[in-house]
Structures are given as C-alpha cells and as structure tokens.
From TrEMBL:
Positions of the Bacterial Ig-like domain: 752-834, 844-927
Species name: Tunturiibacter lichenicola
Signal sequence residues: 1-31
Name of the protein: Bacterial Ig-like domain-containing protein
Highest taxon of source: Bacteria
Alphabetically ordered keywords of this record: Signal
Stored Pfam families: Big_3_5, FG-GAP_3
The keyword Mitochondrion is annotated on this UniProt entry: no
Length: 1102
C-alpha cells in the first residue's frame, strides 16, 4: 500500500497500515509530552467579549474591563486582573434590564461612564468614579416601546458627547448632553423617523459628508444616514445603496478624512456573499468603494475593524463567521482577502503591551486570543475556504503531503494542495455538475496508472437515478475531463469506502444510500471496478435494520483470510473474495465508529460509541470476525463530550512512540466541539493527553501536513485536519520541526484575446488567466519585444485593453512574474492580425455649373477608422489638386479656365488603418460668361390710361459679373416705358428690375363735362353774397369781391367752352393709346457692349 493509498481511506486502509507497521516500530512509548501535541490558543480569563457589552478601563489600571447586561435589572462588571487571573466580578442593581451597553466619557472628567439602552424604553447613564465603581444610574424615558442600538456622538459641537439610540426599530432618538451646566445629564429625547418601510437596529456615527458636523447612521433592513446640522438636530434620513444593514461598521477606510461604511451583503435572508464599502463623499451621497466576493458557506456575521499596531492608521477588517477571515486594506480603501483562521464567535480588538493588535474571541466564560503579528496576519490555526463539507483527502500531486478535494454548492470540484506548512492553496475550481448541491467525492487509483483519480457523485438525475462520474488524475493535482458517467438506480449516494473486495486488483466501491421519506432506511451497495474507471451494475449488500443506529462503513480483514470485510449497521459482512458477503450480527451494543489494532495483537479492534455515561469503549477483535463483548478500555469522557452525537474517531501515532493513539472528536454538527487525544501504549492502555477546543466539527482525519515531518509511512507525529462550515482547518503536530515557508507552486498562464483580428487603432481586450496557488500580482503583455501594458490579477485573471496602430501580425505573450506562492509562467503566443478597414469617399461641389475662372469648392468626406492622409481631386483630363483630411474631410477650391463638362472624382490614398477609396464622379458644367433675361408676367391687359408692370430677372451664366442696362424698342402711340432700376449687376446671383408700361386715355369730352357744375357754383355764390346778413358782409368785403369775380369768370369760360363743345361737328383733341395688343420689346445690353439680349412684353389695351 502506497502513501497515497494510506490517505484515501480514513478507516479500513489506515487500520491495515497500522497493523503492518506496528511490529517494526521501536520508538519508546511516551505517555505524556511536556507541551500539547497540537497547538492551543491562549486564554484570557479577564475578558468575555459580547456583542451587547462595552469595554474600557474602568479603574485606571491600564487594563481593559468589561460591562455587560447581567440578567434582569442588573449590570455585570468584569474588572481585569490580567490574562492569567480570573476577573473581579461585580453586579450593579438597576431599575430596568440593560440591553446594549456603551462605555464612554459623558461628563469630560476623563473617567469612563456607562450609557445603556434599557427595558421599558429608557436610556440609563452611570457616571464612573474612575476606581471601578459607578454612581447611581439616571434614567431618561424615550417615547417608544423598546430600544436597541446606542451610540455616543457630539451632535451640537459643544464638546460633550450626546446619546443617539434606536427606538422601536423605526426611529432614531437623540438625547443631548446638557454640557457645562449639568455635564453627563441628558435632555429630553427628540425622535427622527426612519425612511418608510425600513427597520433599524444598529446605530453609529461619523462625518460622512466632510462638513465638520457629526451625522448618524443606522440600519437593519437597509442603511440610512441622518446628516447632522451641527446644532443637535438631524435632517431627513437618506437611504444608501446598501441592500442590507444587519452587519455594518464605520471608519475612514481610504484615509480622506470622511467616514466610510463597510457592510456584509446581500440581504438578511440569504447567505452573506460579499463585503462592500461605501465611501463618504462631500456631495452627501455615499459612493461605491471596494467590493470583495466571499464564500457563502462561511456565513459571516460580524465585522471587526482593527489596526495592525497602535501606530497604524490603516483599518483592516476581521470577518467572523464559521471561521475568521482578514480583509486587508491597502490604505486607499482597496480590500483584498488575507488569511483565514480556525477561530470564531464574537471578538474585539485590543492592543497588547508590544503595541500589536490581538483579537479576543468569546469562549465559554473567558476569551481565546488570536495574537497578531503586526502585519495583518495572526498566530492561529490556518483555515482554507473550500465552500463545502463534502471533502476527501489524498496526496494528489505525489509530493508526500495531504491535499484536499471538495465540491461546492455550485457543482464545482475544488482542488486544494497542501503547502507543507499546514495551509492549503486552491489551485482549481472545475465545473463538474450543474447540480447546486453536489455530493461527496471519493479518491483512489481507479484506472491502475498509479495516479489518484476522483469519483464524483453529483446528485440525482431527473429520472431519479444517482450519478457516478470518473475523473482521471494527471498526478499533479489536475484531472482530465469526465469520460465515464454511470447512472445507478438509487436515490443518491451517502457514505463511501474504497477497496478491492473481489480480489481482482482493481478498486471497488461500497456505498450507502441516504434515508429519505421514500426510502426510510439506508441500504448498502457494492460497485465492482474494472480497472479503467468504469464499474459494474450496483449489487445490494444489506439494508438497515429498522430503528438501528447506522454506523460509518468500516473495512478491514477481520478474520485473517486476506479478504476485506465490512462492519456496518451493527452487522459484520465477511467477504468471500468475489464481491459477495455473509452478514452476521455484531452482538455489541452501540455504534461502531472505527477499526484498528489497538492492543498490539495484530487483530483489528473495534471502537464503539454507546451514547451513555461511558461514551466510547474499545473491544478486542478475536481474529475470526467476532469481538469480545467486554471492552478492554473505556476512555473517561466525563465532561468532555455531549451525549447524543456520535464522535468521530481517528487512529494513528501522534506522539512518535510507535503505538497507535486514539483521537476522538465530538460531533455536535455545526457547533463548537472538542478533540480529545488519548495516547496508547500498544497494549490497549490509553491516557488522555489533552483536549482541544474546535470552533465547529465536521469531517476529520489524521494527515501529513508539515513538509518537515518524516515521510509516510514513517511519519509517527501525524497532524490533524478537520472541516468547519465550508473550511478546512489544520492542527500541526508540535513534535515535528517548525514548518518552513513552502516552495512556490508551478503556475500556468493562458492568454485569450477578444478578437484575433482588428483594424489599426481598434481596441480589443487581452485576458490572461493564471492558475496556481491563488496567484497575485500583475501580468505584463508583450509583442515583438515591446510592452503593451500590465494589468493586476483579480480572481485569477488579468485583462488589458489595448490597440495596434499599424497593420501587421502581432504575436502577443502574457508574462506572469510569480509571487511568494507561485513560480513565474508565460503563455503561448496569440497572434493578432491587424488589417486596414475599407474606407468610403463621397464628393460634393459647391455648384454644378460655373463660368470660366469662377471658383468652386470641392468637398470630399472619407469614412473609415479615423482616416488620415490626403485626397486627390481630378477630372478626366487633369489633376485639380491634393489636400489633407481634417476630421475626415478634405476641401479644394478650384476654378476652371476653359468651358466644357468636367467629371471630377476624389481619390483617398488610405493610411495605416484604412484602405484607399475613390468617389463617384461629380459633373461640373463650365460655360462662357453670359446672362439670361426673363419677364414675369410676360403679358398684361389694361385700359387706356392705365399702366402695367412686370419683373425682369437677369440670371448670370458662366460666372457673368457685368452690368446689364435696360431699354425699350420703338413704342406704340401713347405708350411709355420705365425701368427701376435702369441697370443691374448680377454678380452674386440673379438680379431684378421692374418694367412699367404706361398708356394714354383719349381727352375729347373733358371740358364740357366740367362746365355744368362750375356754372352752378358761380350763381350760388352770387346769391349768397346778395342776401347774406349785413354783419357778415362787413367782415371782409375785399375778400368777398375777389372770390365773386373769380367764380363769375370761371363760370363764363366753362359755359363758353361747353357751348362750343356741344357741337357734334368738332374733332377729338387726343385719341389716347390705340386699343388692341401692343408688343413691347425690351433690349438689354452689357456695359462692355459685347452681350445683348431682347425680350418681348405684350400689353393688350382695351
């Protein structure tokens, strides 16, 4: 049996190994060792950290004391007498039951006071005397039914701390300190409601917007900030983006002077999956800071801020759940996950005498100390987060160290290699099942190549069959893809063991099916292996005896025939060597938990748990498959293990005396447990070496974790490994030399590009994936010896956005320089082909026609990938010119000197990013300078004596810029012709002039018509003067006589001419413009005298 095989079977194979090597061991027995075999954390009897208590130096002796609620109507005090001494306990009677306690100085006398929320919705205050005693409590009612969280903060800037408390989960109550007049006395509370639908519990304070005024922050279902006004009042609360507020702390994480928030998410109803930071901002709205993904199986509950030393101003965070994980701060608010440790429960940070911060964890009635190293690491059992309690151990990479396999809730197979110092490093997470609740794994050489393989049981198919998947090992901790998948008609797979039960040299499997409502009792099955990773159909071996206590599957050669036998369910199944078994009752009451030769007679003995006062008993094997019915040893477990939970047993030599020792681990699943180490003398006698508290209990076994220990099978100082809430925790045997720093593990870097072809200047993303021992640092990307850039590794990948300026083929390599745990590695080259893109050129011209020497503007627009370069403009006969592109546009001013029709094209030459292109031709017509003339309207109809107008439009042709004068030809009788203006210059386009044609009306009867009314006027005037009153006549006789004379003269003249014209024989004096159509010819002449045009305008006179 190889070292690897020793690890693959936690019971039977180990037992056989002990039987084989025990007679050859000559090391003397050691009943006791001077120091514990496994490390223990120091106790501090003075402190008992609780989430509701308060801590401070109450008596001025320099030690941290504690005040906690002490039952009904009492406050408990623990005065610190040093870590090795029990504290002085005092109980102070109160008028209400305290709930949350706060230690602070409320009256500015440099002595610690106590403020507390109390039953009945009171805030209590006890002023400290500085000697460990306190004055009688004062009580301040808050109008609510209950109070919870409490904090102290100076809200009005008077230098005295005020009190803020959560009331009824829906209000924040503020009680201002009365300050100088009555220091330490509180004013009546003022309530500030929470946002609608938000419940509050925890409360804290800080300056989140940097205005120098203290603010209040409170949360439970969400986190809300009440910004302070600086006068003791608060503004309406603002909700942050935090999705939950069940666990949050405040601090200046990026050292910008503003208070920030760190909280666990996503919400109270689901497992914690991230650590989020919200950064304070002067805008009054918190901004998103660092975010860390967390293992949801650890279920973190608390955040504890701490500085590494008393001289540091960088705040790290201890995340406490099933284990404790350190989140390291880079000083700018950037967080990374540090080490995890096998300690749990509520903790507080305190600085030791050496200035280094330790963490004190609650335990029983004292605390255990996780001593700090001053650099963010601590002295405690290392924990590796694997995400599941389904774990198996084996030497997966043949380095002689124990490695761990696990499956998480996402169906990933996780490989964590032992590093030789008690730690494990996750080197791969491979998706092997879509089932979110993947089952156990089993390790063994199932294909006979000498390398450890994996059988994975991912769950049940929709048809109800369980699955068995085979992954062949490569011997280096990696595995090949699944090639064999077997479906077995059982509702699932529970416990498994591996061995050759039919003597064919191939490993077989014996497994149980878990009980369920459909299958109330477990069943034992056998799968025969074929040596190639495949298995025959399952064979049922036994069913659980109704109401019996099912034991683990134990295997060993019980009757000395060289064939493996089985103990299960209070029964012995003696193997026949062909995969069949004979079942017989065990005849020993209790639950068999382990098999090994414990009394040195070469026969396997049985460890049984009977759930009674005696707990565990050891029964000697008879060598024929039966056991003595009287135990030869019963360990004293008084006060060690709780009844009702069968312990786990491991057997091996841990004290280097050559004799098997017995290690019993209590198994109250998911609760703190105890490991008891019993040292054997080889004859069946044992003595308790020590008991070791465990934070939680799950799978456990002895292992070789320290590279400085002797190689197997010669390692007689075995280490211990156990699981707790998704983590694997190591206990190193202190009899071995101290482990050295592990050598780096080989890393592997692979490179992928978002595209292997691109245009010049086109951005693409290069992604390097680095595998190894949780690699950190940066990756550099190089092509042809030129650095493209570097990128930081986040969760195993580094991404760089880059581009290539010129066309060509670029072989890119990603180089990882390694770190403390990983060797350097480089990827294979990935070739990026960069080719110019197609361009498109379009051409336009300012005018489609022009005259000779008239300037035109040609505009070429080129599209592509930011095109640059030159564009050439050409006609079919000549090159017009070449200009450069500006923002994708090239323009060319040009004038043709000859007349004709010209087809012009624009040709783009291209650049490193763009191929060349040519536009479609644009035709330009070039003519000699001239003009055209039009009239609108071209005709008019009028009566004699009326006038007609028309608009004359002169349009330049061929770049004409001269002056055009207008004139009319020979005009008909009585017709006149005028132009306004008389000339135009159409240099900027068409110009107009208005032509007016006037006609003459005949005048024959004009005077006769006027004489009649004038005669009447004259006689009327004469009569008026004759009969007007005297007074009126006297006003102005001279004026009257003049007017009368004028009227009489006019009347006479018109009468005469009227009488003369009445004769029909008199001729017409002026006949006017003849009736009919009259053609008016308008002539235009260029001022130079070279060009003239004519146009007709027809006037019809009625």
């Amino acid at each position: 049996m190889t070292a690897t095989s020793w690890f693959k079977t936690p019971s039977g194979a180990r037992s056989l190994l002990v039987l084989l090597i025990a007679p050859f061991l000559t090391l003397p027995a050691v009943a006791q060792t001077q120091k514990p075999i496994y490390p223990t954390l120091p106790y501090n009897f003075a402190l008992f950290p609780t989430a509701t208590g308060a801590f401070g130096d109450f008596n001025g002796d320099g030690r941290i004391d504690e005040a906690t609620p002490n039952g009904i109507n009492a406050m408990g005090l623990r005065l610190n007498n040093g870590p090795a001494s029990s504290p002085t306990l005092t109980s102070i009677p109160l008028s209400c039951s305290p709930q949350f306690v706060l230690a602070t100085d409320l009256n500015n006398d440099n002595k610690i006071d106590l403020a507390f929320s109390c039953s009945g919705a009171y805030v209590g205050v006890m002023l400290g005397n500085g000697d460990g005693t306190f004055q009688t409590a004062s009580y301040y009612p808050v109008p609510s039914s209950a109070l919870s969280g409490i904090t102290a903060v100076d809200l009005n800037g008077d230098g005295y701390l005020d009190i803020a408390v959560v009331a009824d989960t829906v209000n924040v109550g503020v009680l201002l300190n009365q300050g100088v007049g009555k220091p330490g006395s509180l004013s009546s509370p003022k309530l500030y409601p929470a946002p609608s639908g938000v419940s509050l519990s925890t409360i804290n304070a800080g300056d989140f917007n940097g205005d120098g005024k203290q603010d209040i922050i409170a949360g439970y279902t969400q986190i809300a900030i009440y910004y302070g006004n600086g006068d003791g009042t608060l503004n309406t609360p603002q909700l942050t983006t935090a999705s939950t507020g069940t666990a949050f702390v405040v601090g200046d994480f990026n050292r910008d002077g503003l208070t920030d928030v760190a909280y666990l998410g996503p919400n109270p109803q689901t497992p914690t999956s991230s650590l989020q930071v919200l950064l304070g901002d002067s805008s009054g709205t918190l901004t998103n800071g660092s975010s860390l993904a967390l293992d949801p199986t650890v279920k973190y509950l608390y955040i504890v801020p701490f500085q590494n030393t008393n001289a540091s101003n960088i705040t790290n965070l201890a995340l406490i759940g099933n284990v404790t994980t350190i989140a390291l701060n880079d000083g700018a608010g950037g967080l990374t996950l540090g080490e995890s440790y096998g300690v749990s429960n509520f903790a507080i940070p305190e600085t030791a005498d050496n200035g280094i911060t330790n963490l004190y964890f609650q335990s029983n009635v004292e605390s255990i100390v996780l001593a700090g190293n001053g650099n963010g690491t601590f002295q405690g059992p290392r924990a590796t987060l694997l995400g599941s309690n389904y774990q198996a151990v084996a030497d997966l990479n043949a380095d002689g160290l124990t490695d761990v396999l696990s499956t998480d809730e996402s169906g990933n197979l996780i490989v964590a290699l032992g590093r030789g110092d008690g730690s494990f490093t996750v080197v791969s997470r491979t998706q092997v099942s879509p089932n979110p609740f993947a089952g156990p794994t089993t390790v063994g050489d199932f294909n006979g190549d000498g390398k450890e393989d994996v059988l994975f049981f991912p769950g049940v198919t929709p048809s109800g069959n369980a699955q068995v998947e085979f992954l062949a090992g490569n011997g280096n901790g990696t595995f090949q893809p699944i090639v064999n998948e077997l479906q077995i008609p059982v509702p699932g797979v529970g416990a498994t063991v591996v061995g050759d039960f039919n003597g064919d040299g191939n490993l077989d499997i014996v497994y149980t099916t878990p009980s369920s409502r459909a299958y109330p009792y477990e069943t034992l099955y056998y799968l025969a292996g074929n040596g190639a990773g495949n298995f025959a159909a399952p064979v049922e071996l036994a069913q659980q005896i109704p109401n019996s206590l099912v034991s683990p599957i134990l295997i060993a050669d019980l009757n000395g025939d060289g064939i493996l036998d089985i103990i299960w369910d209070n029964s012995t199944l003696l193997g026949n060597g062909d995969g069949t078994f004979n079942r017989q009752p065990l005849s020993i009451a209790g639950n068999a938990i382990s098999l090994s030769d414990l009394n040195g007679d070469g026969k396997p003995d049985l460890v049984v748990y009977n759930n009674g006062p005696t707990g565990v008993s050891l029964y000697a094997g008879n060598g024929d498959g039966t056991f003595q019915t009287t135990p030869f040893y019963t360990p004293d477990l008084t006060g060690t293990f709780p009844y009702g939970a069968s312990p786990l047993a491991s057997i091996g030599d841990v004290n280097a005396d050559g004799h098997p020792d017995l290690l019993l681990q209590s198994f109250p699943y998911g609760q703190p447990g105890v490991l008891a180490v019993f040292l054997g003398d080889g004859t069946g006698n044992f003595v308790l070496e020590n008991t070791y508290p465990l934070i939680s209990t799950g799978f456990s076994m002895l292992a070789r974790l320290n590279a400085q220990a002797p190689s197997l099978p010669g390692d007689h100082t075995l280490d211990y490994v156990y699981t707790a809430g998704g983590a694997t925790i190591s206990l190193l045997n202190q009899l071995n030399p101290a482990p050295t720093a592990p050598a780096p593990l080989p890393s592997k870097t692979t490179l992928a590009a978002s595209s292997t072809s691109a245009a010049p200047g086109q951005q693409l993303t290069l992604t390097a994936t680095v595998t190894g021992a949780s690699p950190t640092g940066t990756v550099s990307f190089i092509t042809n010896g030129k650095a493209l850039g570097t990128a930081a590794i986040t969760n195993g990948t580094a991404a760089l956005a880059t581009s290539f300026a010129a066309a060509g083929t670029y072989p890119v390599i990603a180089n990882y320089p390694g770190d403390a745990n990983n060797t350097p590695s480089s990827s294979n080259a990935v070739s990026i082909f960069v080719a110019p893109v197609n361009s498109t050129t379009t051409l336009s011209v300012s005018a489609g026609s022009a005259g000779t020497n008239q300037q035109l503007t040609f505009t070429a627009s080129v599209t592509g990938l930011n095109p640059t370069g030159k564009v050439t403009f050409a006609s079919s006969t000549a090159t017009l010119g070449t200009t450069s592109l500006i923002n994708g546009v090239a323009t060319l001013p040009f004038a043709f000197t000859a007349t004709g029709s010209f087809a012009v094209t624009a040709t783009y030459a291209g650049d490193v990013a763009n191929l060349g292109s040519a536009s479609t031709p644009v035709t330009v017509t070039v003519a000699a300078p001239d003009y055209t003339i039009t009239a609108s309207p071209s005709s008019a109809t009028i009566k004699a004596g009326q006038s007609a107008t028309t608009t004359l439009t002169v349009t330049p042709v061929g770049g004409y810029t001269g002056t055009v004068k207008f004139s009319c030809g020979t005009l008909p009788t009585g017709v006149g012709c005028t132009f306004a203006p008389s000339s135009v210059t159409p240099s900027s386009g068409a110009a107009t002039s208005t032509l007016t044609i006037t006609t003459t009306a005949p005048t024959t009867a004009f005077l006769r018509r006027l004489s009649v009314p004038l005669q009447g006027v004259a006689w009327a005037s004469l009569l008026f003067l004759a009969f007007s009153p005297r007074r009126t006549r006297g006003l102005n006789r001279r004026f009257a006589r003049a007017m009368l004379f004028t009227l009489l003269l006019a009347a006479g003249l018109f009468t005469f001419s009227g009488c003369s014209s009445s004769s029909p024989s008199n001729p017409v004096t002026n006949p006017g413009t003849p009736a009919g159509a009259q053609t008016i010819t308008v002539t235009t002449a260029d001022s130079s005298g070279n060009l003239s045009h004519a146009i007709n305008f027809q006037v019809t006179v009625q």
